[in-house]
Amino acid sequence: MPLFVAKRTLPGITPDALMSAGARAKTCCAEMTQEGESVRWVRSFFLPATEQTHCYFDAATREAVLEANQRARLPFDEIVEVVELTPEVVQ
User: Fold this and answer.
1) Number of structural domains the chain divides into
2) How many other β-carbons are positioned within 10 Å of the β-carbon of residue 59?
3) CA nearest 59: which of 9, 5, 20, 23?
4) Which of the two residues, 10 and 91, has the higher pLDDT score?
5) Could you point out which of 23, 26, 62, 75 has its C-alpha 20 to 30 Å from the C-alpha of 17?
6) Would residue 8 count as lying in a domain?
7) What CATH number does residue 27 fall under?
8) Nearest to 6 by CA among 39, 33, 38
9) What band does 13 get if pLDDT is binned at 50, 70 and 90?
10) Residue 19 maps to a domain
């Protein structure tokens, strides 16, 4: 399944607000999957120095990730498909 990243700039976000955003993302992805549109929040990274988060999603389409973020009321700067590299796949 394709992997996507939602890049966000969240100036002044608190740890509690980050946790709340994660809970909303998790809930909305689960609801969409129950409705037949498979989308899964994989993980997020918060970059305190730039006040950005990078949130990764498995989904068949970018549109599914877009809808999940809209349902969860999560702002984003862009959503793009990514290619994952890990030490196991690099030769």
Assistant:
1) 1
2) 26
3) 5
4) 10
5) 62
6) yes
7) 3.30.70.3090
8) 39
9) very high
10) yes
Q: CA nearest 66: which of 7, 14, 1, 12?
A: 7
Token pair of 44 as six digits: 């997020």
By residue range, what is the domain housing residue 40? 3-82
pTM of this structure: 0.93
- Residue recorded with tokens 């129950």: 34
Cβ neighbours of residue 47 under 8 Å, at least 6 residues apart?
Answer: 53, 54
Other CB atoms within 10 A of residue 25 CB = 23
| First and final C-alpha spacing in the chain | 22
88 assigned to some structural domain:
no
